[in-house]
Automatic annotation (TrEMBL):
InterPro entries: Depp_CoAkinase, P-loop_NTPase. GO terms for molecular function: ATP binding; dephospho-CoA kinase activity. Catalyzes the phosphorylation of the 3'-hydroxyl group of dephosphocoenzyme A to form coenzyme A. This is Dephospho-CoA kinase. It comes from Shewanella colwelliana (Alteromonas colwelliana). Its main location: cytoplasm. It is found in: Cytoplasm. PANTHER family: BIFUNCTIONAL COENZYME A SYNTHASE-RELATED, DEPHOSPHO-COA KINASE-RELATED. The lineage of its organism: Bacteria, Pseudomonadati, Pseudomonadota, Gammaproteobacteria, Alteromonadales. It catalyses: 3'-dephospho-CoA + ATP = ADP + CoA + H(+).
């Protein structure tokens, strides 16, 4: 197991995935909360079975997969339902992430979590890395990428920890206002730093 774990986070549209993939290119194992959260509700899992029992079969697509849009709609307008879902899935996601981190063979591992601080998952890592961009650029990139309105992006940004809060809690920050090549050199520097830190754990 990689004993040294870096928690990677950043607001929507900040470029977390790009940064994570640059670390992966250097041979570092990634454990991505978004991917894990899909795995725990895949067909045949206890997570999906419990969701279908609770919300009914209308929450599933015809092929038996979870209809995320239908589920989002159900929980968005009903906080108690959202809480029920979080109470079911968060422990499962956490357990699966820890299991995947245990299997990591690289000198250190990266845990990619959009809501690292909000969900208290920074307790699982040795240090935190925030990918930072301005709210204006965040809005612009997310609108282009997801074809959503500025208002929708603002709502998502509003539900995440503020930029100032993330930056105050971060051990390291990558400023992602520049080019991908600038990003690569920043990642290379941090990679060397984390290798040294991992050596001492």
């Amino acid at each position: 197991m990689s004993n040294f774990i870096v928690g990677l986070t950043g607001g929507i549209g900040s470029g977390k995935t790009t940064v994570a993939n640059l670390f992966a290119d250097l041979g570092i194992t990634l454990v991505d909360a978004d991917i894990v959260s899909r795995e725990v509700v895949a067909p045949g899992t206890i997570g999906l079975t419990r969701i279908a029992e609770h919300f009914g079969q209308s929450i599933l697509h015809e092929n038996g997969e979870l209809n995320r849009a239908a589920l989002r709609e159900r929980i968005f307008s009903t906080p108690p339902e959202r809480e029920w879902l979080n109470n079911l899935l968060h422990p499962m996601i956490r357990q699966e992430m820890l299991a995947q981190l245990k299997k990591a063979t690289s000198p250190y591992a990266i845990l990619v979590v959009p809501l690292l601080f909000e969900n208290g998952l920074d307790r699982l890592v040795n240090c935190t890395l925030v990918v930072d961009i301005s709210p204006e650029l965040q809005t612009q990139r997310t609108m282009e990428r997801d074809s959503v309105s500025a208002k929708q992006v603002q709502n998502i940004i509003g539900s995440q920890a503020s930029r100032a809060e993330k930056l105050s809690k971060a051990d390291d920050v990558i400023d992602n206002h520049g080019t991908v090549s600038a990003l690569q050199s920043k990642v290379a520097l941090l990679h060397n730093k984390y290798l040294k830190l991992a050596d001492h754990t």
